[in-house]
Design a protein that fits this description.
147 residues; 4-stranded mixed beta sheet; alpha/beta
């Protein structure tokens, strides 16, 4: 690969920009507001910009649909039980998943999974996770690091 050696980390200095497709932007706005308690910090025709914990993500009008078969974006929280309970109260439906690496016969319990050895770069011994789909079928996750 040609290029300046100083350019090797060109993306390491960039900000990550998550983009989530929405076939119905008004429906997505209602879901993010009513279910997740989030309001756009900026909007333009065809897109909504949200900010959580100093990081931005965009929900944009798209004719394509997400397959919703993998986590597209997630939040790290300090108390996953409290967050999951509150989101359930607001009508969010959590996925029952069965995956290798999950404790307790590889299944979620009350919407929460115990994950062994995930994300070792964060210094945790594991993570507790929960997943749900937004109104557009995007798979979103909630995670709590276990130290």
């Amino acid at each position: 690969m040609d290029g300046n050696a100083d350019d090797r980390d060109i993306l390491a200095r960039a900000h990550v920009a998550t983009r989530l497709p929405a076939q119905d932007l008004d429906r997505a706005r209602r879901f993010y507001s009513e279910a997740l308690g989030l309001e756009p910090v900026d909007e333009r025709p065809g897109g909504l910009l949200y900010r959580c914990g100093g990081v931005d993500f965009v929900v944009f009008q798209s004719t394509g649909a997400s397959p919703g078969t993998f986590t597209q974006m997630g939040w790290e929280v300090d108390d996953i039980e409290r967050v999951v309970a509150e989101l359930k109260r607001r009508g969010v439906v959590f996925e029952d998943v069965g995956l290798p690496g999950l404790l307790g016969n590889g299944q979620t319990r009350d919407g929460i999974a115990e994950i062994v050895g995930n994300y070792p770069s964060k210094g945790a011994r594991g993570e507790r996770g929960a997943w749900f789909r937004d109104s557009e079928g995007n798979m979103l996750g909630i995670g709590e690091l276990v130290f």
